Amino acid sequence: MTRPWLLSLLLLTFPAVLRASTDLAKNKVKVLRKLKPISTSNANVKQCLWFALQEYNKESEDKYVFLVAKVQHAQLQVTDRLEYLIDVKIARSNCRKPLNNNENCVIQENSKLDKKVNCSFLVGALPWNGEFTVMNRECEDA
Ligand SMILES: *[C@@H]1O[C@H](CO)[C@@H](O)[C@H](O)[C@H]1NC(C)=O
User: Fold this and answer.
1) Which domains does the chain have, with CATH numbers?
2) What is the pLDDT of residues 27-76, one digit of tens each?
């Protein structure tokens, strides 16, 4: 037995689905300025890194706090916010979690606890609002 009503239902819903997906594409945030290298000592880069490391330390299961060892590259693109793409080498410090701000943490060198990780952080920022979001993070042991 055929069910013509089913076919017409499909025909009715298809255009709606298509429309929804094109709307989604339209809502994608426009890139107003493409990724361009900027100085790694830029103040916003530093703030973004500080934020990204805080998130990293919150989420990592390591007993020790990781610190920035070397900022390799920083790039900026502008969308509805500032997006910083930062390549950084981070390293395990001698400070156990949770981090006490009064501690002087140094990177573990030449010990069994020596551990370095290369990370690429994409941090979205509205620095004038103090808003930072880690939009993407890729890390691998270095
Ligand atoms: C980590 O980053 C450094 C500097 O960019 C690079 O020389 C090294 O090959 C990287 N290590 C890994 C495992 O990707």
Assistant:
1) 31-141 (3.10.450.10)
2) 567 899 999 999 999 999 999 999 999 999 999 999 999 999 999 999 99
What's the gap in Å between 117 CA and the centre of ligand 1? 9
Task: Report pLDDT for 119.
Answer: 98
142 ligand 1 Cβ < 6 A = yes
Output the residue whose Cα is nearest ligand 1's atom 10.
142
User: What is the DSSP-derived secondary structure letter of residue 99?
Assistant: P
> Is 72 close to ligand 1, i.e. is its CB under 6 Å away?
yes
* Residue 142 CA, closest ligand 1 atom number: 13
pLDDT in tens, 104-113: 899 998 889 9
Name the phi and psi angles at 79, rounded to 5: -120, -125
The Cα 53–Cα 65 span in angstroms is 9
What span, in angstroms and rounded, lies between the C-alpha atoms of 132 and 47? 9
Instruction: Give the global pTM.
Output: 0.79
